[in-house]
Design a protein that fits this description.
The complex is a heterodimer of chains A (192) and B (472).
Chain A: H1 3-15, H2 37-46, E1 50-53, H3 57-63, E2 68-70, E3 85-86, E4 95-99, E5 102-104, E6 109-112, E7 129-135, E8 139-140, H4 143-149, E9 156-159, E10 164-165, E11 173-174, E12 181-187
Chain B: H1 25-33, H2 36-58, H3 63-79, H4 81-94, E1 98-102, H5 105-119, E2 123-126, H6 130-134, H7 137-143, E3 147-150, H8 153-160, H9 177-187, H10 199-216, E4 219-222, E5 226-228, E6 233-238, H11 242-248, E7 252-258, E8 262-263, H12 269-280, E9 288-293, E10 303-309, H13 313-317, H14 333-337, H15 339-344, H16 355-366, H17 383-387, H18 394-404, H19 409-423, H20 425-437, H21 465-471
Parallel strand pairs in B: 1-10, 2-3, 2-4, 4-7, 5-8, 7-10
Antiparallel strand pairs in B: 5-6, 6-9
Classes of the chains: A alpha/beta (192), B alpha/beta (472).
């Protein structure tokens, strides 16, 4: 007998005819609230991300003095400051510039889904500085709204602030293996 | 297809893994309680996390509704477990992954060891995983000549210190910053001898130490927080980025997951992703959550293996009351609020699952006889039930398991004698008068002295209720 059949047989024997309970979903569902940009900014800052509210992304990138910069292939070229030192290998990069898929206001979370303007997962992982551009129309109120928008077949990375740990005396300390600096550019492209 | 009976649910085997301690809880707790430093470290850490968690839980007006949904989702998952596991297997396979089934710790260790051997590698990087701690995977890999490198900071502290984990979330919770600095100075190759005990400096030391290992190790082993049956999506929550490194840099990824971790639908994550971080690290959201479905061409590991582990879980499932323990999402909130855990720490429980949830999960995974003292490692105060994000009624489970634990023969004889006496009024009156005559007896003589080892015998009243009633 295979272990698969053994385990499934054990599970069936253990359960007998256990009824399946109804799941009450009385919590606030997707679509119940409008996204609040002020909440997003507050939560990002609380978890030590730096927020820039502007459509002039190239100026923000230039002001951060990014050093060797890696960008996924789909990033809008107008986001790059003139004279940026571009590298193609993330192992050699000091900074990475990406777009995002969704941002969750209530938790201060940005989600990347590996689209051409967000790149392979490792691109936004190895450089020490991550500059992430979020369009205001990508911001949703809470976790259920993000789940409703995301495609689970894509590789997803949910990012809430820079790399951190709570492993020393259970206090949050920023800066372990992921990018130690996270800058979020909140860009409103819907109004001129 | 007819359902054939294929075997009785089995407990986790002896001689492998880390579910059984060397001594019963009272003896281990006695030693832990004598360690002042341990109690200070635990008091400080659990106090910090309780405050943080309380603050972010209070931010959600629908916390109780989320708990109710989480609880029902877990119960529904258990009731549908066979079909959900089959669906998960189908979806993971369709997305390019390979699914393995491990009936117990020995089989899981063998599967993982063989998979690593097939790559020709002698070293693996690991993301913190309770399942692999439970089955003793590191010991099995080391025996096969494969070096497992723990990359979570707390696991690294435990591994470098040749220590044992003492908390589900923060395995090195029993160590303070000064002790961590000493371990790093002693055991971390190439560490800066001028290392201070500033937490940010200690974290930076771990970053430097592990970076080259991340970049040069092509096999990783992880656990999983959730696996979505509907889509085949695996989910790992973490903080440091070590998880992202292990889940994206290597060529081969092996994930070991208890069969109870499956969730039915993608949408169900909207409940658990709100419950887990707030209950666990006391954050609105943990810094990093990775989700992947099978293999993505050109992005991340191109070889993905999922090992589905029983190791006693079906035995837990067979107990209609006890199966609630399988709802646990490993947040460790119950440890942080437990007055017993706060004083004894995790090592006293003997199992990798300490605290209130460990006291109900470990004895069921191993069979109650192998962890008979754990259901008593509680004052039944109920704080764990209130803190649990999926509403596991741990106090009721503790009482349930106490009834299943083997009781000493003398206790059964004494209880039978008491029952007979109370059934016969004349005998009862005489017994009460005899008790009064015995005066202030603090400790019972053998063989009943065990009962009074940790409590005083109550003083008999000057007048019994029946005497008082008769006088009126």
């Amino acid at each position: 007998m295979s272990s698969r059949d053994l385990i499934l047989g054990r599970v069936r024997a253990a359960l007998g005819d256990t009824p399946v309970p109804e799941v009450p979903r009385a919590y606030r569902p997707a679509g119940s609230r409008a996204a609040d940009l002020e909440v997003l900014v507050d939560r990002l800052v609380d978890y030590k991300a730096v927020v820039h509210r502007t459509g002039d992304i190239a100026s923000v990138v230039a002001s951060l003095d990014p050093g060797r910069l890696v960008v996924p292939p789909g990033v809008d070229p107008s986001w790059l400051p003139p004279g940026a030192e571009l590298v193609t290998d993330e192992h050699d990069a000091d900074a990475v510039l990406t777009a995002a898929t969704v941002a969750v206001a209530e938790t201060g979370t940005i989600v990347l889904d590996g689209s051409p303007d967000q790149g392979r997962r490792v691109v936004s992982l190895l450089p020490d500085l991550h500059i992430c551009v979020v369009r205001t129309d990508q911001v949703v109120a809470a976790v259920p709204d993000a789940i409703a928008r995301l495609d689970p077949t894509r590789p997803l990375t949910w990012i809430s602030g820079p790399s951190a740990t709570s492993d020393i005396e259970l206090n949050r300390v920023e800066g372990v293996h992921g990018p130690r600096r996270l800058h979020v550019v909140l860009a409103d492209f819907t109004t001129p | 297809m007819t359902r054939t009976f294929l075997g009785m649910p089995a407990t986790a085997p002896r001689g492998v893994g880390n579910l059984r301690g060397d001594e019963p809880f009272p003896a281990a707790a006695h030693k832990a309680l004598a360690d002042d430093q341990l109690r200070r470290n635990l008091g400080h850490a659990t106090g910090t996390i309780r405050r943080k968690s309380g603050a972010v839980v209070a931010e959600l007006p629908d916390w109780q509704e989320l708990r109710a949904a989480g609880s029902a989702l877990k119960a529904a998952t258990m009731a549908r477990l066979p079909e959900l596991l089959e669906q998960l297997e189908e979806k993971v396979t369709a997305a390019g992954g390979v699914v393995h089934w491990a009936a117990d710790a020995n089989e899981a260790n063998r599967i993982v060891t063989d998979l690593v051997r097939a790559t020709g590698q002698r070293r693996v990087i690991k993301v913190k995983s309770m399942a692999t701690q439970e089955i003793g995977l590191n010991e099995a890999l080391a025996e096969a000549g494969i070096a497992p490198v723990e990359t979570d900071l707390a696991e690294l502290i435990v591994q470098l210190g040749d220590d044992k984990p003492s908390h589900i979330l923060v395995p090195a919770i029993h160590r303070n910053r000064a002790e961590i600095r000493e371990i790093f100075l002693r055991e971390m190759p190439g560490v800066d001898p001028g290392l201070t005990d500033d937490p940010a400096t200690l974290a930076a030391a771990a970053r430097r130490y592990l970076r080259e290992t991340f970049l040069s190790t092509p096999v990783a082993v992880s656990g999983a927080n959730f696996a979505v049956a509907e889509t085949g999506t695996l989910v790992v929550l973490e903080s440091e980025g070590n998880g992202r490194m292990c889940l994206t840099l290597p060529e081969t990824l092996i994930t070991v997951m208890g069969i109870e971790k499956v969730v039915p639908a993608w949408r169900d994550l909207e409940v658990f992703l709100q419950l887990l971080p707030r209950a666990s690290t006391g954050e609105r959201m943990n810094p990093y959550t990775s989700m992947w479905t099978g293999v993505t061409p050109g992005d991340g590991p191109q070889s993905f293996h999922l090992v589905l582990l029983d190791n006693g879980r079906t035995a837990v499932l067979a107990d209609e009351v006890g199966r609630q323990a399988l709802h646990c999402i490993r947040c460790s909130a119950c440890l942080n609020v437990c007055p017993v855990y706060e004083r004894t720490g995790g090592h006293a429980y003997g199992s990798v699952y300490p605290g209130p949830i460990g006291a109900v999960l470990s004895p069921q995974l191993t069979g109650v006889a192998d962890n008979a003292s754990l259901p008593y490692a509680s004052s039944l105060c109920g704080a764990c039930f209130d803190a649990c994000p999926v509403r596991i009624d741990i106090p009721s489970l503790l009482v349930h398991l106490r009834n299943k634990a083997p009781h000493p023969r003398t206790e059964r004889i004494a209880m039978a004698a008491a029952a007979y006496t109370m059934d016969h009024p004349a005998l009862y009156t005489r017994a009460q008068h005899a008790a009064k005559l015995s005066g202030r007896l603090k400790h019972l003589p053998p063989p009943l002295n065990g009962w009074t080892a940790s409590r005083d015998l109550p003083e008999p009243p000057a007048e019994t209720f029946r005497d008082w009633w008769a006088r009126r």
